[in-house]
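Protocol step 4 of 5: obtain the predicted structure for the target chain.
Materials: sequence only (see below). No template structures provided, no constraints applied. The aim of this step is simply to have a reference model before the mutagenesis design in step 5. Sequence pasted as it appears in the construct record:
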Amino acid sequence: FSGNEHALVAYPLSNDVVELVARSRVSYTMTLGITNGGPEGQDYYISLNKPHDDPKLNHFAPHYVVDLKTLERTWRDPREYLFPRIAEGGARVLRAGGVLGVGSHGEIPGLGFHWELQAYVAGGFTPAEALRAATMGSAEAIGRQREFGSLESGRYADLLILDKNPLLDIRNTLSLREVMKNGRLYDAQTLDELWPRRRPLPPLWFWEDGPPASPPEGGSSLP
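Step 4 output (structure tokens):
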């Protein structure tokens, strides 16, 4: 299997490029948080959401990492960002039968993937199309679509349980209640195991540097 990670920087994509990518079945993971060819899309979401003081982010990531990733960012007029136009090309590839994946480059722990989905929708993906790219498409992009990416018998039991419907608003992927990884159920706010055993998350290494942030009541403070 072959893949193209990061954006094809020309826009709009010509029809022959769209058809070439789609028919070749080379997966396309745009990584809009980085946005090759333009301002980093993640700067838009950092300016919009102000995640530096988000309790959940600080609970699961070392504070110096949070500082590094969220404080030194450049504000731009939203019209300068190219990621919606880049994403529009990805939507055309998907609708032509191509394989779209989702990846956030590991920039902002946890939140970056949710923002990536929002960026896809900002470029014209429906929420269902963005979610399909994040699950089945991403599994195919790494050649493991027979193991995970969909809920079927014989596949890994990896899933998210949400309080709100992301098909109505893609930002609802942030309404995490529980997470299942390979059949083990965890509290999404604390990652304490709920089933088949009940046990707390072992202390994370950076908690020794100071008291961890308290898990937020009812989820992340982000919209």
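Step 4 remarks: The chain has a mean pLDDT of 92. Residues 127-141 form the longest helix (15 residues).
Proceed to step 5.
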